[in-house]
Amino acid sequence: MMRVNKRLGRILLAATVLSPFAASAQAQWPQQPVRIVVPYAPGGSADNIARRMAQELTSSLGQSVIVDNRTGGMSTIGMMEGARARPDGYTLVVNDIGFVMLPHVKKSLPYDPWQDLIPIGAFVFSPIGLAVNASSPYKTLGDLMDRARAKPGTVSFGSGGYGTSPHLASEEFALQAGVQLFHVPYKGGGEAMVALMSGTIDMQVSVLSTFKGAVDGGKLRMLAISGEQRQKMLPDVPTFAQAGLKGYDLYNWIGLWAPAGTPAPVVERLRTAVYDAMQQPGMKAYAESVSAEPRVVVGDDFLRMLKEEDAMWKRVIDKTGLEKQ
């Protein structure tokens, strides 16, 4: 009930400020710097992509767009900061695929992802790959799946922690392949990579950019990658379908949201700005430089994508029996 009352209060507040003066201000938005809250630490994939998008938005909006990192709570601290911000278009928040995963792995959230935030758009779609140590006996995805089927629970995979996107993407892989894997959670993605590089774990599932440098350096071997066709940055790596696993086609992405109650003209201008940013040659080149695809989805199409992925991850977590923490 408290959430409903707060929600109603925000809507009434938004309606109150829509005076002729406020409407004029909206038409001139933005009149001051815009802040994008990133719920992850500086230097990570989400942070880097958000900063690159902020550069494009700064150019198109005519005001500085700055990134503010608010970490903690598996991204809930930053998401709460964005959800509770004044709905005037000057505070936005980004997240990745964790946005649709988190409600299914945490017992409670300090915000409602569907009621407290307005989806702007998703951009820079990163393929998911499966990698093993270069000295691994698994030369193909078929080799690994055969071993996992023959001896359930003996093939290990690492992740940056329980409920992270690499963890859940690996669980979805196991479901699709019909195998049982052994999960080794680490305190972060960096530790998981060290374990993979040392051969402590057998495999890891993550975005392509996580592995590409080590693959190019001959330290890791990529067995498969998501997508309908091979990625031009690693043309020798088959898709999951080509490697014998149809239906496993995951991507990570970066999404942008505004607080509920943000005026519609501001929301629409943001959606247009994000879409236009991804049409710029520089932004397309940047996406490819981080081993991603320069795709963009905005507005209702973004919301529809979120709902579909939310349902998918609910199914995955229900089938695996993972408990909320």
UniProtKB/TrEMBL annotation:
This is Tripartite tricarboxylate transporter substrate binding protein. Residues 1-27 form the signal peptide. It comes from the Bacteria. InterPro entries: BUG, Bug_dom1. CDD domains: PBP2_Bug_TTT. Keywords: Signal. Pfam families: TctC (PF03401). SUPFAM superfamilies: Periplasmic binding protein-like II (SSF53850). Belongs to the UPF0065 (bug) family.
